[in-house]
Amino acid sequence: MGKRKTNTETDATAVSIAASTEENFPRGGASALTPLEHREISNKVAKDLFASKAETEEPTIEGEEPVKKKRKPSKKKAPVKAVEAPKKSDNVYIEQLNFKKLTVGTSFLGCISHINELDLFVSLPHQLVGVVAITEISDALTAIVEKVANEDEDEDMEDGSETSLPNLAELFYVGQWVRCKVSAIQTGENKQKKVVELSLKPSVVNKDIAKVDVTPGVTLGATIKSVEDHGYILDLGIKELTGFLPLKESKSYIEKYNRDQELTVGQYVECAIEKVNGRTANVTIDRTKLDHAVVEDPFSRISSVLPGQLVTGLIDAVQYNGLSVKMQGLYTTTIDQSHIPAHMNIEKDFKLGQNLTFRTLFTMLNTDEKRIAGSLLPHVLELDVPAVAEDKKSDKFVADVFPAGTFLDNVKVARVSPTGVWVTLEGINGVCGHVHVSRLSDEHIAAVSGTSGKFKIGTTHRARVLSYNPVDAVLVLTLQPSVLAEKFLRISDIEVGSMVECEVERLIPAGIIVKVSKSISGLVPTVHMADVKLTRPEFKFKVGKKIQCRVLKTDLMKQKVFLTLKKSLLNSEYPIFKDIREIKVDDVSHGVIIAIKNNGCVVSYYNNLAAFAPGNEMTETRIANLGEVFNIGQTVKTTVLRVDPDENKMLVSFINSKKKAEKKALDKAKLDAKHEAKNDALAPGKTVKAIIKNVKKTHITLILPNEMEGRVHASEIYNTFDDIKNTKRPLGRFKPKAEIDVKILGVRNTKLNTYLPITGKTKQHVDCSLRLDSTEDDSAREIRNIKAGEEFIGFITDVHPAYVRLSVGSHTVGTMQKQLASSDPNVCNNLTKHFVSGQAIRVAALAVDANKNTIEFMNADDSSLPRITDIGALQVGQVMNAVIKRINKTSGLLVSITSNIVGKAYLTDLADTYTEDPTAPFTEGQVVRIAILNVIKERSQVDVSLRPSRIFPGIESNEIKAFADVKRGQVYEGYVTNIAPNGVFVKLNHSIVARVKIANLSDSFVKEWKSIYKEGQLVKAKVIYIDHDLHRLEASLKKSVIEGTAPEKKSKKEQAVESDDSDEEMPEVDDSDEEMAEASDSDAELKQDSGSEDEEEEEEEDETPAPALKVDNFDWTGINNRVDSSDEEEESDDEDEEKTKGKKQKKEVEDKTAELSTTAPQTASDFERVLIGSPNSSYLWINYMAYQLQLSEISKARDIGERALKTISFREEQEKMNVWVALLNLENNFGTEETLEEVFKRALVYCDPLKVYLQLVKIYERSDKLDKAEALWEEMTKKFGQSPEVWTGFGLYYLQHQQGDKSRELLQKSLKVLPKHEHAQTAVKFAQLEFKHGEPELGRTILEGIMSNSPKRLDLWNIYLDMEIKAGDYEMARRLFERVASMKFSSKKMKFLFKKWIQFEKAHGTEDDVQRVKEKTLAYVESMS
């Protein structure tokens, strides 16, 4: 019993060391102990806390004296073992950290050593290094990174609105001190790659510090939360505490460390607490104050001790490898020799009981043996850089002053340890060096002595720098002669293009691995082994052979070196290309072909530099396949033609293009001189004499002075159309050999649509004009300047059966479609008869596409032709020409009005009289007259008619022009437009369709009824039902209905099959014409629903099939109650088998009434029979309603609901309530607002009003009528304000629809209205809703407020605990258990609490956690006894 009590007390101190008695018994009497006794007890507790449990439970950690005895199962010997263990050693273990000892949760004081784009490298104590990802700095930066990632996934993001990643180089600087915590430890598969992942987030690093321990002098890492007028709000990561940084306290930091830039949201800063006032702590980031801020008040608990705190303590142990200090007289802290200045003698310069000021370095508090380490190094105490020369601090980072590879001639051994030696640097006190024992010599050294041998204290050596750790202020050195002799220690030391001697290490498929230095290997790619391809390279390059290589490129990120062995590159007399900014045009160098393309090749140089050589610059003669002449890996001599450093592009040549260009320029100069005199006479704008050489249909060819050839287009002859006397032959008046005056226009550049200078070097056609006095520029008739609607004089160049090609300028050509040539279809259908080449015609432009270089014209001489420039110019009733583009015998014609506008003519609009094949008179390509029926510009849909009554006024027809013209009982002709699984649809005109159910297709029974009709078939249909609101028609194709004769009597089997067919769902009607799938809204919107009877008058439901009505979880569809279709098929198969038998057997009449008690009703008669036996069953009544809805009989379903209300006994209130809910569902889905309101008001009279309101609001929510639902909730809070159920239900509604703020306002309103005794339960309910659907932190806030008023309500504490456990925050739940267990309850309640706690730890904790709770339980029992 004594041992258990001791363990319990020790565990309790882990939570709180100071004043633990007061926390556990807050209402007890005053303490009888003196302050001195308090201090002694606290010291004893701390000693027990830091005493190694490994002496009795676990093996000792590295560096301690091992325990020889292991734990034995005998319980009697265990106490003896615990007493003897401390006598083994009086030495204090000095913490020496390494990677193996690291644990997640260890906190460090670190220093930033490198800044990348997406992470930070942080140097840690004892030469460790960690990585901080950009998402582990602050919540604000994490949000920005996530936003950028989401924008990258969004392909439609507009330019200019993108968010950029934070620039870490602007938020941090190399050498900046930070507080961090280990978040993960990664070890590679080969255990070589070890990564320590860190976090800077204050919510992670500072989460364990208590608010009471945040006192003046404490330093913390924080992030900027917001920028205010007078300062910055900081996130300290401490619950209920926010930091405020005044502007004056940030000025010096901004000027010196932040490049005069204001602090930004999410930026990390180190701060010192100046004053704490309630929930706000005033802080400073002024380095002069921060560096000297000392923590005066002792920490109340060990978890509040963070790294980076400047504290005082007393030395309680001095050893050769460090010190043990009692921090603040409470917590044992160790200072390793690496963090004591190297020039100090530890055992002489430090005494027991001496008072020290040191800075905490790291804390490891999440392990059984809690460790705190400190530092006495001056730069750590000042949080600054160490002095490097004459006690002066360098402006540069020490790693830049002493980069890797630097030689240090005189380093003196100052301290020796088993792991290596510590050395001092000549003239430098702030930085020391450390040489690991493995790097003292190339040979193995078993042990190092400080008093004798080569490395005794005081000896000097020549060393080389390997790396630098800014936290330890130590240079990692080596004394190995082999490393000192190395030329290259880092890849960055190797210069690209330099010659290096390497040693062959091994051959691999990719090339040769060579050893550049002892620690650096390189690769010679296969193509760089030699100038020719080697078939057996292993014979030439044997392992260990020394070879001379040239460095091609280095990759510092991947730490790779690439070299070449090509003699052509090793012995090249030309300078190497390795920096594009140093290369100039005409520079020459050797390169290697790395890729051959159809139009050239890619040449590679040094340092990843590449250039492109065009095919015509690779050889003098043209080669079809460059791969036949050149090879990949071939060395070529190149000359730079063009270089663009900004674009990183370069163009090179294999041939001597410089001389070639000079020769070309000389020839050009001679040719220009030859034609200079000739060109002066033919300058553009001059008028010259010319002789007609030939007269074509649309132009005249001329002979100009100097024997050059000219050309005059017909458009350059006449100014107006009236000037043309003979429109059929406008150039007939010109004769060959006649002399005429012409004006020179120039030589046309067809690509740029401009005139070129006349050179005479090659054969050129000079454009001329006969309009000598005209000032009009020919550019007005160019395609780029032509606009739709403008008129021109056109000259026909070619006549095709489908179109006419014509030109309106010397270089502007367009087409005139046949339907636009005339308003007379006969003329359009025979263009070659009415138009000839060369004919002049007045035309107007309808559509111009400069990108495709096309113009569409129409005949402007025909005033009957409307000018349709776009679909918006079309008007209903307009008559015009169109050409038939496609014929579909089942749907109609597709016609082209212009090249960009297409119309659809349905079968019903091809003639005034319906025929079996209405498309027979038409052929594709035929021009017809059409009338516009309907235009939908948004969908580019045009409906047209070819009916003569529409085109020619005065002709009468029986066409149905509007829905109002349709009369019930009238017989109409139409065409079958769709055959669906459950019926046939008949098109009466282009927009009116009648539905014919299966039951109304034929008088006689036909099993395969789909074969009766086919799409496009002409039928007669009688309208039997009209829905004027929804514009729906129901028709019949029965001959007896249409002619009024008596139908033949159906057999029972026919009726059964017909009934089964009618119960099937009817799918959506689709237009059969794929090209005009969007042509008719009516067709696309028609939805078919099932019907079950042959009545002529039926009511229609909504467009979509009837959705399921719901009464809580009740199934309204009726599908689950139907007989499986497979059973029906089996029955049908059995009947077929019976028919095939030769015997004629009479079928036995079966009484199936008894089966209704075991199977669900399948027909209306089944339901009626079952309801006779159970008239009060709302389940049956609602199923009956659902059955009718499946048959699209909404009115019948409504009537059945009314029957149910009258039939069910008044005593069955719940059954009646179910039916009322069903009716509300029905009216909500299929009725109107008026019918729903009428049912709702009636239900309020007969049922509990609150229940009816709650059911209706649920119906609104399920059908996504959120506005109505919210309005109804508001009404309920006014009518039923005394009901907590209404307020909590309304709050849940807000939370489920992302309106948490309104839910929290609702809680405050409810507390003003509800009775006082309901407040606690209502608030608890709102807190539970926050945990489940909102923000758990707000739920905690509500519950904390409740518990402060009702601390003795264990039922409420139980709810609080359950919410924390469900939320998954087990650490928070554990702390809450501790809190509740410290309160005073009855023994029965405490038993319940501890039992629940143990169950929680068993489910979510460890065995140690379970044992700890059991010990607390036992301690409570003992205290009660």
Automatic annotation (TrEMBL):
UniProt repeat feature TPR, residue ranges: 1284-1317
Pfam families in the record: S1 (PF00575), S1_RRP5 (PF23459), UTP6_C (PF24892)
Residue ranges annotated for the S1 motif domain, each copy included: 105-201, 217-288, 405-480, 497-566, 586-655, 685-761, 877-947, 969-1038
Compositionally biased intervals (Acidic residues): 1057-1083, 1091-1104, 1126-1137
Signal peptide: none
Protein name (Swiss-Prot/TrEMBL): S1 motif domain-containing protein
Compartments where found: Nucleus, Nucleolus
Feature: compositional bias, Polar residues: 9-23
Region (Disordered): 1-36, 52-83, 1045-1161
Taxonomic superkingdom: Eukaryota
InterPro entries, A to Z: HAT, NA-bd_OB-fold, Rrp5, Rrp5_S1, Rrp5_S1_rpt_hs1_sc1, S1_domain, TPR-like_helical_dom_sf, TPR_rpt
Keywords: Nucleus, Repeat, rRNA processing, TPR repeat
Listed Basic and acidic residues bias regions: 1045-1056
The keyword Membrane is assigned to this record: no
Positions with biased composition (Basic residues): 68-79
